[in-house]
Write a structure and sequence with these properties.
Structural class: mainly beta
Distance between the termini: 39 Å
Number of helices: 2
Order of helices and strands: EEHEEEEEEEEEEHEEEEEE
Shape: globular
Number of strands: 18
Number of domains: 2
Length: 221
């Protein structure tokens, strides 16, 4: 068993360019430990929220993904992942968001999985207690645009540090709420459940129509 440390001074709000390299040799993960099997991943950020992924730099296929936590709040037991083999072309990349500067707004990320695949969604400057649509992090598509004619199977939301996720909503094209899930505080605050997520829903089976939206309602720290 071995472990390696990978770092990067990353740019908020993008995947591009945020490639983590080995802290000693400065190499990407695929070059440094090709064909190794990963069983845990402990990702940390300075402040805000952050997603990570293991991606083939040539095919762009993603073989593993997850959440980071604020530096100092990692947990080995919570960082286990499904075993994944590292390809020689693999890179580790991150998508961070800073804490919103306004006192009544927050930022959030979400991994959304459907029968068509998994995408990272983002929500910026979410006004407190206001149901706000999340869109795909890369091209800004709604849930219905990105995943029309598929079934939602799971979703996991990470809000910025200290933020409370009041609820998530799946909303149809007429504005009707098809599904609601109540969230929580993430991290070391009262009532918190996980350092990694505010809500983590699995086993869903919701058919997604055109014009549908995925919304979150939050309250800042």
């Amino acid at each position: 068993m071995m472990s390696k440390v990978f770092t990067d001074a990353s740019t908020d709000g993008v995947w591009s360019g945020n490639v983590l390299t080995d802290s000693i040799a400065g190499q990407s993960i695929g070059i440094l430990i090709p064909n190794a099997t990963l069983t845990f991943a402990q990702a940390e950020y300075e402040a805000g929220c952050m997603a990570w992924r293991l991606q083939n730099a040539q095919t762009l296929a993603v073989s593993s993904r997850g959440w980071g936590v604020k530096a100092g709040f990692n947990c080995m037991g919570s960082s286990m992942i499904s075993p994944v083999r590292v390809s020689p072309n693999d890179i580790l990349t991150v998508f961070p968001l800073a804490v919103d500067a306004a006192g009544t707004k927050s930022n959030a990320l979400a991994w959304v999985t459907t029968t068509k695949g998994t995408e990272l969604f983002k929500g910026l400057a979410i006004v407190d207690n206001t149901a706000t649509a999340m869109v795909t992090a890369v091209n800004g598509q709604s849930l219905g645009d990105a995943f029309f004619n598929s079934r939602l199977t799971s979703l996991s939301v990470q809000c910025e540090d200290g933020c409370t996720l009041v609820e998530v909503q799946i909303v149809d094209e007429m504005g009707g709420i098809v599904y609601t899930g109540q969230g929580n505080v993430r991290g070391p605050d009262a009532g918190s459940r996980s350092n990694h997520y505010n809500i983590d829903l699995k086993g869903l089976n919701i058919a997604i129509g055109k014009g549908w939206a995925f919304k979150v309602k939050t309250v800042t720290a």
